[in-house]
Amino acid sequence: MRARPLLLILALLAAPVAQASSSCKASSFLGIDSLRCQYRTQQVPTGGLGTRTVEYQLPDGTPPAGGWPAVLWYQTGVFPNYWNGNSTMLAGLQYESQLFAKLLDAGYAVIAPTVNQARLLQYWDTNAYGVDVSQPYTDTEDYRVLTAVFDGLGAGQFGPINTRRLYATGMSSGGYNTSRMAVSFPGRFRALIIQSASYATCNGSTCTLPAQLPANHPPTLFLHGADDSIVPPATMQLYYDRLRAMGVEVRQRLEPGVRHSILPSAPQEVLDWVRSH
Questions:
Q1: Which of 47, 104, 133, 158 has its CA 20 to 30 A from that of 68?
Q2: Burial class of residue 53 in the structure, from the number of CB atoms within 10 Å of its CB (0-12 exposed, 13-18 middle, 19+ buried)
Q3: pLDDT score for 12
């Protein structure tokens, strides 16, 4: 009889942990598969006269003690954040909404700041000519905006977020901006996932690494198309090799036959990487 309480406790411990869920809804019409994810918006100051939009969503359900862990998604640049995707989209952009849904279902908040909308061709300031050379990154609008985002996360502006469990990812210009987190915001992120990009100040085929990379660089996963001609894989490999030589935990997935794109495997790869850190 005394064994029954112990058996009950063991059974409860062995039971699957209830996952969060999301408000993302899948549908199909005339052979086109779609996924629509609801999201919220907040405005953060730019340090000038304007504000910048931050799109975000929290998992459904009760947050864990300390708040939801969060993944920051940095907009690809010329493309908006695709919370609603479908199977006709190019450059793998349909996998963006799938990534959001997978993270939300697994209990991760998604925080998606947007780039400077005033530019004709949109990109993150980390890619601007002369940044870190003739212009300190700390003088850029992005630095002020992202600092405001981090302050807002700590103040509960985006809901209950665990700021000790932050991760960052993005593709193309958003991937370069993900690298920027290691360079200009040290200690904030547990892990990074750089997609179709390289080091913070590289740009396309132009890529020269500084003499010293951050000694406390977070563990980093690189996702890249092997046939990418816009951001050649060799530029990613240069960054990857340097980090590996430093003893930083790194991994890469180079997808054959894929060009400049979000990889089909990205939703699961990103989730697995953040879960392991």
A1: 47
A2: middle
A3: 36
Q: Which residues contact 235 (CB under 8 A, 6 or more apart)?
A: 198, 199, 202, 204, 205, 207
d(CA 113, CA 43): 10
| pLDDT of 7 strictly over 80 | no
CA–CA separation, 232 vs 54, rounded Å?
30
| Residues across the chain | 277
Cα–Cα distance for residue pair 189/182, rounded to 1 Å: 8
User: Is residue 240 classed as helix, strand or coil in its secondary structure?
Assistant: helix
pLDDT at 118: 83
E-strand stretches of 37-143:
40-45, 51-57, 68-74, 84-86, 109-113
Q: Which domains does the chain have, with CATH numbers?
A: 20-275 (3.40.50.1820)
d(CA 274, CA 244): 19
Residue written as tokens 């601007």? 128
Distance CA 255, CA 143 (A): 32
| Interval 144-194: pLDDT, tens | 999 999 999 999 999 999 999 999 999 999 999 999 999 999 999 999 999
Distance of alpha carbon 147 from the chain centroid: 16
